[in-house]
Amino acid sequence: MKTTTAQSSRRRLRTRVSKNRLSNSQQKPIGAVKKDGSILTAGKKAPNFSLNSTPDQKVSLSDFRGQPVILAFYPADWSPVCTDQLSLYAEVMPEFKKHNAELLAISVDNIWSHLAFSKDRKLNFPVLADFEPKGTVARIQSSWQQQKQSRVEQPARLDSKQ
Asked: Can you give the pTM of this predicted structure?
């Protein structure tokens, strides 16, 4: 029986999640690469932000101070790779919850796109709109480099206890 790309991606993500357990301080932290080459790593205080999760509700990073937060920046709702990636996060959400970790997905799409996308993909975590001005939070967190139109391939795993 052939393995589909989605099945292969799920297997790789589950393996990564198993290897990178949030409680394992021996692992090298994942982080967002800044323009100067430095990395926003686990244990560093991430700059606070507030973004809409619905038209009338904002979510702030400071709402989660004291618990681990995973910031998953992605370029676009509905794209095949991003759809697979966020669907996989929804599948492994119980693993994140075991460690009291919160996942916040962030992209530059508008809130209406996020709401339709979240409902269609049955996402069980907040999807935040970094829409206006486009990409401001991504640039602050150093996960998006506008001149290269590139993104960090792995989510930034940050400890927001500070």
From this structure: 0.66
